[in-house]
Write a structure and sequence with these properties.
- The complex is a heterodimer of chains A (about 200) and B (about 200).
- Chain A has two domains: about 40 residues; about 150 residues, Immunoglobulin-like (Sandwich).
- Helices cover about 20% and strands about 35% of the residues of chain A.
- Chain A is built from one helix and ten strands, in the order αββββββββββ.
- In chain A, strands 1, 2, 3, 4, 5, 6, 7, 8, 9 and 10 form a ten-stranded mixed β-sheet that branches.
- Chain A is elongated and about 95 Å long.
- Chain B has about 200 residues and is mainly beta.
- Chain B has one domain: Immunoglobulin-like.
- Helix content of chain B is about 15%, strand content about 45%.
- Chain B contains two helices and eleven strands; from the N terminus they run H-H-E-E-E-E-E-E-E-E-E-E-E.
- In chain B, the strands form two sheets. In chain B, strands 2, 3, 4, 7, 10 and 11 form a six-stranded mixed β-sheet that branches. In chain B, strands 1-9-8-5-6 form a five-stranded mixed β-sheet, with no helix packed on it.
- Classes of the chains: A alpha+beta (about 200), B mainly beta (about 200).
């Protein structure tokens, strides 16, 4: 009777010990992997202009960068301003019409005092509306360059990805989320007006 | 031995049940999605908040609309779908701000934001109970999404569990595509004038 009870107790202790060691090992391995991944980030590929980049939700092809005093709308502002513009093709791979994501294109390194850029639809020479699935469009993103800062000879832009989650962590809803930088593109900036 | 087998079975059954529950839980987006009210083009479709009837549909390669300063030509890589409809509010004054073209492949095309200044477009019109008013919806879709499409109209794109009209559109063929459509401002009764070229 006492022997039997002792053996059950021993079994239970053994089970607890195994479960504890297993849990600790899992925690240690996952922590180690996270630390390793953070210490050794995947190198972001440098993509040449004119090459298509798959960002998950979008396929973007940066074409060329240029600067000028007229924004892509073609309506110059009364006081002289300088704009740096980047022309790109954009295709929506998701199932619904959507505005270009805010993390799609960003400058590297960030310029202090730079206003948020405005994305334009080249077809209309106007501020872009949502891009429809399966209908690639030529777009122009324009940065109003801070006065007193010289226009760069070259642009280095980061292309941000977006990924789809069928169930997000908060609500369990399906949606798209901004992800990591998927590519770096370096383009020379030519000084010219937009094509008429 | 018997006990071990039994507990192992219990663990496996529990894992199976949990997996089945995880897989079969409806998505939050599904639970809170609008409630479809089916209808057909040419019929009156009644939702709890509004009624809508689709009259005519035109297809065009380009749209011309004179804006304040200049006459603007709107080109597209696909086809413009211009839908003329009539809407009546049921209980209170309202505007309709969500119109989508659901293509046969399940792709959703929002009404074009490039032409939002055209009178009669969703968001520009207010509908009163008992007074039917015309409404214009313009979509930009690829040719492959014209036939077998549905038109989805709701009061707002973010209204969980509100009723949404799902209107089966009459078959359209690519032969019906006009080279150009000119829209201009209309009068009190008809906010726009549509001219096919």
């Amino acid at each position: 009777m006492t022997d039997e009870r002792q053996s059950t107790l021993r079994n239970r202790l053994l089970a607890l010990l195994i479960a504890g060691i297993g849990g600790l090992a899992a925690t240690a391995i996952s922590f180690g992997m996270a630390v390793y991944a953070a210490a050794n980030p995947e190198p972001v590929p440098v993509v040449a202009p004119g090459k298509a980049i798959d960002t998950g939700r979008w396929i973007i092809t940066p074409e060329r960068a240029y600067s000028g005093n007229t924004p892509p709308t073609g309506i110059p502002s009364p006081d002289p301003r300088t704009y740096v513009m980047l022309e790109f093709d954009l295709e929506n791979r998701s199932a619904v019409s959507s505005y270009a994501s805010t993390n799609l294109i960003s400058l590297d390194p960030p310029i202090p005092g730079l206003k948020n850029p405005v994305v334009h639809l080249a077809r209309d020479s106007w501020i872009a509306s949502p891009v429809h699935p399966g209908m690639p469009e030529k777009m122009v993103i324009a940065w109003e360059w801070p006065a007193g800062l010289s226009v760069p000879r070259a642009l280095r832009v980061l292309v941000g990805g977006q990924f789809y989650k069928r169930r997000d962590n908060l609500y369990g809803a399906s949606s798209w989320f901004n992800g990591d930088t998927v590519a770096v593109v370096e383009l020379p900036v030519t000084a010219e007006q937009r094509p008429q | 031995m018997n006990g071990a087998v039994r507990s192992l079975t219990a663990v496996i059954v529990a894992a199976g049940v949990l997996y089945a529950m995880q897989r079969s839980t409806p998505l939050y987006s599904d639970i809170t999605s609008p409630v479809p009210v089916a209808g057909r083009q040419g019929e009156r479709v009644d939702t709890s908040a509004f009624a809508i009837g689709i009259a005519k549909v035109y297809l065009a390669r380009s749209i011309t609309f004179p804006s304040l300063s200049r006459t603007q030509h709107y080109a597209t890589s696909g086809v413009w779908v211009v839908v003329e409809s009539a809407v009546e509010a049921k209980n209170e004054s309202l505007g309709l701000t969500s119109a989508e073209w659901l293509g046969p492949d399940g792709l959703r095309y929002r009404y074009s934001q490039r032409l939002t200044n055209v009178p009669g477009m969703p968001g520009n019109e207010q509908f009163e109970p008992g007074i039917p008013r015309p409404m214009l919806m313009i979509f930009e879709v690829p040719e492959s999404q014209i036939a077998g499409a549905r038109l989805l109209v709701a009061r707002s794109p973010y209204a969980p569990l509100a009723e949404e009209a799902w209107i089966d559109m009459a078959a359209l063929s690519t032969d019906d595509i006009h080279p150009s459509i000119t829209l201009s401002r209309g009068g009190q009764q008809m906010p726009w004038i549509l001219k096919v070229e």
